[in-house]
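Case 300 in the screening queue. Each case pairs one protein sequence with one candidate compound; here the compound is iron/sulfur cluster. For every case the pipeline is the same: read the inputs, emit a complex structure as tokens, and attach any notable structural observations.

Predict complex for case 300.
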Amino acid sequence: MKKYVLFRFVPTMGCNYRCSYCFLPNEQKSIKDTMFDTYAPEVWVEGMSQWSDYDVEFYMWGGEPFSIPGTFDVVKGWTDYRHVVCNSRIDTNMFFADEIAKRCPTSKVKLNCSWHREYEDLHSLFGKVVTLQELEMVGMVNFVASTENIEHLREEYGMTIDDLVDMFEKIDVFLNVASDINVFESRNIFKKKQVKNLLSKYTCPEDWHYLREKMSSTSCEASKSFFTVNKEGDITTCLGEDVVGNFFEGTLEIRDKIMCAQRCQSLVAYPFRLDNDFIPRNSLMSYVERNKAYRKSLSK
Ligand code: SF4
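Case 300 output:
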């Protein structure tokens, strides 16, 4: 079996939206640095040819990855390689959905499609999801179930969260019901309990634990196959600063498992921990299948 590697990239922390509930301060969202400042998209595409001995998955987040033109070219170029396997994940605010469908249509990418209701109405979002679903590019639609968003859903559309789940289920799309990070960053125990009671029927207890609860330190094998690549092409481990390889040279020094006490709340990352049975490969679609099965088990 070919070795497996998951590369994490940040095309830009810049974004074309200024959502009021975003984790990122607005001053960090004006596009300054990009992944293409040193090397052009075609050089990044060529760089991926160095990794043909691996099954490669990539993960892009931000900011808004598609807010810069080079991202479309790199996604198109990378997914043309046979060794770039299915189910690479890209987080997007869906503003550029139509351009994604035109410039880099590929079933090898699964989008984490966030609905930002301050910028887009539900019907417009739904239309874009239908288009991308036809291209098998939708991993899930993400709805942040904050008090304001739930109220907006009721007042604007006369809908509950369950209605929204059903609406997307009809086109075979999983609606992820995310809790408001601000609630879980606060010290308001009562509010946290309230939110957990409301939302725990949408996310299985195992995932809820990693996404929202305190974790004990554990052994983790991320440094064997999960790496961050910076804009110089330097490869670092999940937490580490030290460089363990270079993307353009195709070099990589695999490190042994480590003990980690960090908060590990990303569903891309926590499957590498040895305190769970999750499979790191294809983590987004595994999460979707896990939670679809969980919801079904509750409806029996
Ligand atoms: S436990 Fe999580 S944060 Fe720590 S090294 Fe592993 S994947 Fe990274």
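Case 300 observations:
- The longest strand covers residues 3-9.
- The two ends are 39 Å apart (CA to CA).
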